[in-house]
Amino acid sequence: MRKTVASVLVVFMALFMFAGCGKKTIEQQVKPAELQKMVDEMKENATFKSVYKDAAIEVKENSITYKYWYKQELTDEQIEAVKAQLEKSGLDKQIDSLKSSFKKSTGIEPDSVSFIYYTADDKEIANISK
After folding, report:
1. Largest CA distance in the chain
2. What is the residue-wise DSSP string for 13-73?
């Protein structure tokens, strides 16, 4: 009986000891309210208001995605021009800066940061990730 109780205790102690050992993620550390505050602050920017109708920030484990929806309806030619412009815009530097910022605030470097741009009717224009 003592051996059984001791065995059960050892199993429970091992479970509790390793329960907190899982790797923390950015998703676990950043509260949804914090993300919403960031989005709300972006939306208050005058440039944002003139170009975009909406934005969102999503965090899945250690990957961060910024999503933007253009306000204006775009023709296929305009979509191609916007895509080309975004791909040449130097978002890589901004992504590096964001990765550094998240690492400072959470202690975890994101696996990836993405910027996804959409038309007003939800068609993906560009997805820039690093």
Report:
1. 79
2. HHHHHHHT-SPP-HHHHS-HHHHHHHHHHHHTSHHHHHHEEEEEEEEETTEEEEEEEESS-
Distance CA 22, CA 117 (A): 34
Structure-token match 């920030």, residue found: 57
Q: Return the pLDDT at 90.
A: 86
**Reported CATH class of domain 23-129:** alpha beta
Run means of pLDDT, 10 residues per run, the chain, 130 residues:
36 38 83 92 94 96 96 96 93 92 91 97 96
Nearest to 99 by CA among 109, 107, 91, 89: 109
Token pair listed for 33? 């309210």
Whether the full predicted model's pTM is greater than 0.90, yes or no, is no
What are the sequence ranges of the domains in the chain?
23-129
Q: Which amino acid type is present at position 96? A: D
